[in-house]
Amino acid sequence: QVQLVESGGGLVQPGGSLRLSCTASGFSVSSVYINWMRRVPGTGEDWVSSISSDGEIKYDTSVKGRFTVSRDDAENTVYLQMNNLAREDAALYFCVAPGGVRGQGTQVTVSS
């Protein structure tokens, strides 16, 4: 079964950090392009970052310098390290693979 499962979200104060995980089953994350997206209720989905099969990484300008994507092929997992979080980063974060495969998402709340 082809599946993505995100985890690692939670409540953090402004300026804090979180590391999100996106674990795949049924395929290898090292062989596909994985996107991190986020969604705020009432708005559309925004692209955050991506990592290609050959390791090329891209970031939206809003997170560049604060977020870092990495991949652990042995764990079949893609990570999103988020530092210096701001209130506007609060959202449901989810990962997307080719073919529309996406997880349920993990909620990030930024509040003091």
What this model shows, in words?
The chain is built from no helices and 11 strands. It has strands at residues 3-7, 10-12, 18-25, 34-39, 45-51, 57-59, 67-72, 77-82, 91-97, 101-102, 106-110. Strands 2, 4, 5, 6, 9, 10 and 11 form a 7-stranded mixed beta sheet that branches. A 4-stranded antiparallel beta sheet has the order 1-3-8-7, with no helix packed on it. The protein starts with a strand and ends with a strand.
Q: What percentage of residues falls in helices of 4 or more residues?
A: under 10%
- The average pLDDT score comes to 97
Distance, first to last CA: 40 Å
Overall radius of gyration: 13 Å
> How many beta strands in the DSSP annotation?
11
Coarse morphology: globular
Unreliable stretches (pLDDT < 50, length at least 5) are none
Looking at the chains present, what oligomeric state does this protein adopt? single chain
Largest sheet: 7 strands, mixed
| Helix count, DSSP H or I runs of 4 or more residues | 0
Content-based structural category: mainly beta
| Beta-strand percentage range | over 45%
The run of helices and strands is EEEEEEEEEEE
